[in-house]
Amino acid sequence: MTETVGGSSKKTAAARDGAGDKRTGLVVERVYTTEGKHPYDEVTWERRDVVMTNWRDGSVNFEQRGVEFPDFWSVNATNIVTSKYFRGAVGTPQREHSLRQLIDRVVRTYVEAGVKHGYFATEADSVVFEHELTWMLLHQVFSFNSPVWFNVGTSSPQQVSACFILSVDDTMESILNWYREEGLIFKGGSGAGLNLSRIRSSKELLSSGGTASGPVSFMRGADASAGTIKSGGATRRAAKMVVLDVDHPDIEEFIETKAREEDKVRALRDAGFDMDLGGKDIVSVQYQNANNSVRVSDEFMHAYENGAQFGLRARQTGEVIEQVDARELFRKLAKAAWECADPGIQYDGTINDWHTTPESGRITASNPCSEYMHLDNSSCNLASLNLMKFLSDDGTFNAELFAKSVELVITAMEISISFADFPTEPIAETTRKFRQLGIGYANLGALLMATGHAYDSEGGRALAAAITSLMQAVAYRRSAELAGVVGPYEGYARNAEAHQRVIRKHSAANDLLRTYHANDAAVVKLATREWQECQRVGAVNGWRNAQASVLAPTGTIGLMMDCDTTGIEPDLALVKFKKLVGGGSMQIVNQTVPRALKALGYQQEQIEAIVEYISEHGHVVDAPGLRPEHYEVFDCAMGERSIAPMGHVRMMAAVQPFLSGAISKTVNMPETATVEEVEEIYYQGWKLGLKALAIYRDNCKVGQPLSAGKGAKASASAETKPETVVEYRPVRKRLPKKRPSQTVSFTVGGAEGYLHAGSYPDDGLGEIFVKLGKQGSTLAGVMDAFSMSISVGLQYGIPLEFYVSKFQNLRFEPAGMTDDPDVRIATSVLDYLFRRLALDYLPFEKRAQLGIFTADERTAQVADNYGGGDVDLEGLRTSVEATPEKAVEKSAKSAAEDKPKPQDVKVGSSTELLELHLGTTADAPLCMTCGTKMRPAGSCYLCEGCGSTSGCS
Known about the structure:
single chain, alpha/beta, Anaerobic Ribonucleotide-triphosphate Reductase Large Chain, ten-stranded mixed β-sheet, 31 helices, globular, disordered N terminus
């Protein structure tokens, strides 16, 4: 038997057709490697120093010098792998110091298990397999999920799975065991999800005659436990998912749980409690450690369509105890998601229609990021391929090489179950019986752009669907061949008919694919052959794995592979910051941009001019020589031209039919989105055949620095720049000898200082002096010079709001929490100083444009938006003229009207562009390791600074 090449390789009868007692192992051919030459000898290695500093005080929180990596690995990937995945105490001889040691530790464990359990025909085949895996990992072609790097080959339990689904019954023993099992999973560096619908509602009676507590009450204890356990004993918090069926009598309470907590956050914040990110009082907020999802049935969705009543059922008897209006309930779901991004939605009918093992139980829940969906008390290990590694220089996607790579990776993933440890015996039993795998990919957004496809286009969706179909077909075909070698999964015999039905559904979906380009046509052609071979071999052998694929967020491992985009996500923006080997960073245009321009037929001179324009402006609109019909190719998740919410949904719908599981992705929506739009997104998700969906509306949460008005800030900044050159002689207006002034003491990120501000007698700031650092120090001298420069500029008539627009959100250390109740978090000392000056010296109208408000003004906003009492907003607003610092924010509606549309906003650099759209991640938590604001990655969050994630990686 030989290694498959695009479904056309020669196989022994034992592998293809099953051979009972005559089974033989796999014969592995070389794909990437050369016989007689080890993969390590083909690359140039270099020594690097990894030093990571604490964001609060600049102290070193991780340091390892002299680590060894290939010269083509980025500094960011080096830092992440060294700090996250190297094992052994830092500073000891046992500490890993080379990427070779890390890869060998993992790969050799896989190969030894493969030999032990009879996966290879000969010892020579195991050696080839070892070299192939080593080459692929070394060259960032794919990566296993984080638990593999944490645990495999160490003295720790060999936990390889990142995704777990638990089960809880309507007994106190089961509920307490739920808490325990979650804790064990969090400790091992993974996340878990479960469905609470078996627990009786608060509207039902106990056998003792009392009333049941209901599932929401028990969520409090689990939430508190998750909040105290750092995942993997490291730096990231636990990730969890809680699901409740739509027919549960407590469904309305569950839907509104997090929205009510957000109301509490507002009230406590406005009462003076520290409710900002990392604040000492934020821990009083409940239910924040879990993603919540409502599991809707087809019956409910049909009732929603028809405007009918829907019955909520008792948990033990199944009788209807309450009738609700389906449309009203669905609107409450959409409204809660609009308010706080929770709950998400899962479509039970679609999920179980694609279920390969229904005779062994229904699928009731998912992992925290909603991509793994299978039986209760089960787990899934993940691995993701870097799609850009299969893009040739001429712009063609190498489908044959991709198929070979999928074979190798899925084989390794299957072997891992043979030696893996699991946190509980029920999970171990189910996983070994059904052997669930989750192969996936990253860098799809970069691939589409590099090949000249818009993310939200028929061509882009066709290529994505074709690649996903090929991946699934090859994975299941190899699973069928493995079944011929080591037997099908234990639960296959009972579920054979259902499994074959699902395979036929995948194949039928492939037959419906339309092609638009030579790339997707070639991929579909190969996928069609693979599906035919998959069904032929599977009909004889069965399959080794109950499921094969998911699309995970690929947070940390995406950075490890130097991916430009994670999972199924589009590019975040056209510019990014690249870390340099000697320290520091530089701003660059994504390398996918020139590749895309080349694919679209532009000449080198045109490409250079367009790239230069993007570097300066951060977008492609009006770029010299770029045709408007090509603008859409460069649409990103944020920026001048951002992808519409339905564009994300349509991409998910295109690839969903070719996945065993689901897709970890959050659909970003603008702050101006309405409840009705959220409702429509959730409805269309069902109509388009998705399994799960979550949305995030910009600025919908309040436990973070306010970002409203950033668009106005950029606009105001642009307006201060004259459009025509006017020659004039500025006149300096000096301050009188005696002038009013004030001094403010402040603390930013632990650094203490003083701000002295002097005013003209007729009002208006005229000078500032900043005391920061020891007298005679470089910092003190720089701040003195900076103060004089600003003061002279003010006296020559430069408006204060111009300085504020330029210096707010400026990022450098020290940064973090302040002792100012009106400015709770600052991204730098200058950010704090100019926000404080704006609050003290600018009128309300100008501060509203800049998005800067006092705590009192935010209180009035909450009262206005959420009915917090009889507040005389007009009276408060009138008082602005007399007391600027007591101004109040406009209502949400008027603010939305005043906010300029994206096409009206002009920025002078890509840095300003990123600042302008930072609001799309305003709710993202600060990284607990380095303090950088994290960004969405699928349904989770990812720190690009150090690689920490809040979920699957």
